[in-house]
Amino acid sequence: MARDENDDVLPDQDAAKEFYAKYEPKEVLGRGISSTVRRCVEKETGREYAAKIIDLSNEDTNTQTVRESTLSEVHILRLVAGHPYIIELHDVFESNTFIFLVFELCRNGELFDYLTNVVTLSEKKTRYIMKQLFEALDYVHSKSIVHRDLKPENILLDDNFNIKLTDFGFAKVLQPEEKLFEVCGTPGYLAPELLKAAMYEDAPGYCQSVDVWACGVIMYTLLVGCPPFWHRKQMVMLRNIMEGKYSFSSPEWDGITGKYTPKDLIRKLLVVDASERVTVKEALRHEFFEVVHCGIKVFDARKSFRFAILCVRCAVRIQRLKNTPEPLSLSSAVVDPYRIKAFRKVVDNCAFRVYGHWVKKGDCQNRAALFENVPKTELKNLYVSNLNRL
Ligand code: ADP
Ligand code: MG
């Protein structure tokens, strides 16, 4: 932390100074209710980051609430640090009026914008993204944390289009068996039990399963481009959520195969009764994800190299085949030495040395006669009878 307890005179400027001394802020990458996210460059290393600048002096917001929620976000970011699919917090500067959170930079922006560009994602890409999201969430839930604001805007894409789960502003650490009642999140992604907790006094509250519901909404949206519960009138939408009223309507869903059952997984995620809903671990075991390894070709350098060597050796062998000496068989050498290439050469050489003067220039028939190698019948019989006697 860049804050100094004794620095009450101009603490905000000092925090800003420390940030500006270390980083060069660049263009705006995104905005939230009380934050602006800018690309920035670390002066010493030239490395790029994303700085979330939270303005605590904003008149529309309660400074203390924003500060507390930002510090809680920092606390949770540190608890979930070190996972490949969760955003990494690099640096923090805090003052009376500003907090700077410096994150690793996700150059490919939000999954939301990506989806807007491509309209819908293939089943293969959906599988790739959802698997990473469930893995990130499994890690979050294993730390007894609930995210509470899962949506494509809070899923960023890095250089390799791998996801980075971000925005832990609503996240909360739960005590064992603890239930929550507070309403927070984004309307289209809210789980039925969360809405009921806000509406009914005797509602049992909610916990991590609200994130699983949001995953169902995200997966549905990725596949067909539109969310399952959207309605022009928000009240109708919220009622549909509480009743679990959605459909795999035509024509958007016509092209989605039943092969790896994405619909089946969505049905298990969008279950109104939270106790009947699958957990993240169960979702990861769903057959929709079983094809990940055979569906997406994993490049194995060693395997490819071995295969290339095998191909080259095979080609060389085939090429050399005509030059390769035949294996010498003693029995055929006794019966028919002329069949063996090496002997044939010797025989031909001898024949030419003896009878070469017969070969007339320009008479190929004559020359061919010299290669005549069918033995005379009596001679052949003599060979065979001699062999039998051996
Ligand atoms: P808020 O809590 O205000 O919603 P977020 O943490 O979600 O703030 O950030 C707001 C937006 O800023 C994101 O939706 C995204 O567009 C952009 N953004 C945030 N962090 C990064 C990052 N690390 N790399 C690139 N863009 C980011
Ligand atoms: Mg956000």
TrEMBL record:
Residues 23-289 form the Protein kinase domain. Signal peptide: none annotated. GO terms for molecular function: ATP binding; calmodulin binding; phosphorylase kinase activity. Its EC number is 2.7.11.19. GO terms for biological process: glycogen metabolic process. InterPro entries: Kinase-like_dom_sf, Phosph_kin_gamma, Prot_kinase_dom, Protein_kinase_ATP_BS, Ser/Thr_kinase_AS. ATP binds at residue 52. It holds the Pfam family Pkinase. The keyword ATP-binding applies. Keywords: ATP-binding, Calmodulin-binding, Carbohydrate metabolism, Glycogen metabolism, Kinase, Nucleotide-binding, Serine/threonine-protein kinase, Transferase. It catalyses: 2 ATP + phosphorylase b = 2 ADP + phosphorylase a. GO terms for cellular component: phosphorylase kinase complex. The keyword Ribosomal protein does not apply. Hexadecamer of 4 heterotetramers, each composed of alpha, beta, gamma, and delta subunits. Alpha (PHKA1 or PHKA2) and beta (PHKB) are regulatory subunits, gamma (PHKG1 or PHKG2) is the catalytic subunit, and delta is calmodulin. Belongs to the protein kinase superfamily. This is phosphorylase kinase. It comes from Orchesella cincta (Springtail).
